[in-house]
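Severity: low
Component: inverse-folding endpoint
Summary: output formatting inconsistent between runs
Steps to reproduce: submit the following structure tokens with default settings.
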């Protein structure tokens, strides 16, 4: 299965669209929001740190959901049918795809954190940098499963549009672009139940020197179970027709 994971990771990283939009876009948005968009002198350090977490989460979320787009394209090209005649079991294929998605989110997270440190001068102890990257990495699991579910359930054309819509909706309502504290009361309450919002809270808690709250972990675990069930259902439906 490791050979399969390595193959999928190489395929993803060779995709110029993924490199430009999956890695370059969050970095560009972070620089614009904290420097050019903030006027002379740039934004304060608190906003640079919060925005760094938000943009790293946004990039990781997009890369995780984008895993499903590759699955839909493979399904259309007959790659899934080829995999079914190999010794790989269906479970190992799905797990391998999930691991691929987990690996390909790392460049997006690392790029934004690196720009935060080198360009915006964000400073934290080494353990906080490691914990921040680790939690953002682990926290992408629900979004990878959502993307896989869309990829197995929908056509290649539909998956791309649906995944883009999911990414934007979860990012904006989750407060990854702008702080949820600026939202109206009803939207702020809704945001607190979304996976994007709790995903960003994983990182924000680390930058504030504390562990994620139990409520944050519980909400993310519930979304993980929901999206996991959706991915399994979608795969079973696809297996009957592919």
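Observed output (run 2 of 3):
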């Amino acid at each position: 299965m490791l050979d399969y994971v390595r193959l999928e990771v190489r395929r993803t990283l060779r995709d110029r669209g993924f490199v430009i939009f999956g890695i370059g876009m969050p970095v560009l948005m972070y620089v614009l929001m904290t420097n050019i968009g903030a006027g002379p002198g740039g934004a304060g350090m608190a906003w640079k740190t919060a925005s760094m977490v938000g943009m790293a989460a946004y990039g990781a979320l997009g890369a995780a959901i984008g895993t499903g787009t590759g699955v839909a394209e493979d399904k259309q090209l007959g790659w899934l049918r080829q995999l079914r005649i190999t010794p790989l079991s269906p479970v190992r294929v799905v797990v391998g795809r999930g691991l691929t998605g987990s690996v390909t989110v790392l460049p997006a997270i690392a790029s934004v954190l690196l720009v935060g440190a080198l360009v915006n001068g964000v400073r934290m102890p080494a353990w906080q940098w490691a914990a921040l990257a680790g939690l953002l990495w682990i926290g992408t699991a629900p979004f990878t499963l959502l993307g896989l579910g869309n990829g197995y359930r929908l056509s290649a054309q539909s998956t791309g549009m649906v995944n883009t819509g999911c990414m934007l909706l979860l990012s904006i309502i989750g407060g990854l672009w702008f702080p949820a504290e600026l939202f109206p009361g009803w939207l702020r309450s809704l945001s607190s139940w979304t996976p994007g919002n709790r995903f960003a809270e994983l990182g924000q808690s680390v930058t504030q020197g504390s562990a994620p709250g139990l409520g944050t972990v519980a909400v993310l675990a519930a979304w993980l179970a929901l999206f996991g069930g959706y991915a399994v259902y979608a795969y079973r439906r696809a297996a009957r027709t592919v």
